[in-house]
């Protein structure tokens, strides 16, 4: 599988504004933010879509959510609220085929997302 743009960011081949990193998870500021706070949270292992997840990925996916919560708290948006978004495949709005979570906050969101 060819490296995604996110894998290239993890490898530091493409610069990013890193927010968090550990052995499994990497988070950075979105270059085209849709909210005052817009962080991309990704597993370091490239998994193309949510449809490619296996049962053994449940801990990793849970860790992505916990990292998102911790980042929200550290950026002082947890109390007011924030949105987590996963897109899957083209009709779901996915443009980079490396699972990623959008953490967005710092403004009021509405539903439907539009």
Unreliable residue runs: none
How many helical stretches?
Answer: 2
Characterize the biggest β-sheet. 5 strands, antiparallel
CATH architecture: 2-Layer Sandwich
Strand order in the largest sheet: 1-2-3-5-4
Helix content: 10-25%
CATH superfamily: HIT-like
Number of domains: 1
What gap, in angstroms, lies between the N and C termini?
A: 32 Å
Strand content bin: 15-25%
Radius of gyration: 14 Å
| Global geometry | globular
SSE string, helices as H and strands as E? HEEEHEE
Characterize the structure shown:
It is a single chain. The protein has helices spanning 5-10, 58-74; strands at 18-21, 25-29, 37-43, 82-86, 101-105. The chain has 114 residues and is α+β, with helices and mostly antiparallel strands. A 5-stranded antiparallel sheet has the order 1-2-3-5-4, with helices on one face. The radius of gyration is 14 Å and the shape is globular. The relative contact order is 0.22. The mean pLDDT is 96.
Please supply descriptive tags for the structure shown above.
five-stranded antiparallel beta sheet, globular, 114 residues, 20% helix
Question: What is this structure's SSE topology?
Answer:
Layout: H1 5-10, E1 18-21, E2 25-29, E3 37-43, H2 58-74, E4 82-86, E5 101-105
Antiparallel strand pairs: 1-2, 2-3, 3-5, 4-5
In short:
This protein has 114 residues and is an alpha+beta fold. The chain contains two helices and five strands, in the order αβββαββ.
């Amino acid at each position: 599988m060819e490296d995604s743009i996110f894998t290239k960011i993890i490898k530091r081949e493409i610069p990013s504004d890193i927010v968090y990193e550990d052995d499994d998870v990497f988070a950075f500021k979105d270059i085209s933010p849709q909210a005052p706070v817009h962080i991309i949270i990704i597993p370091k292992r490239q998994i193309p879509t949510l449809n490619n997840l296996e049962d053994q990925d449940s801990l990793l996916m849970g860790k992505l959510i916990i990292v998102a919560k911790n980042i929200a708290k550290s950026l002082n948006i947890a109390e007011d609220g924030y949105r987590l978004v996963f897109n899957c495949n083209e009709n779901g709005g996915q443009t980079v085929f490396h699972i990623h979570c959008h953490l967005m906050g710092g403004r009021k969101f509405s539903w439907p997302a539009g």
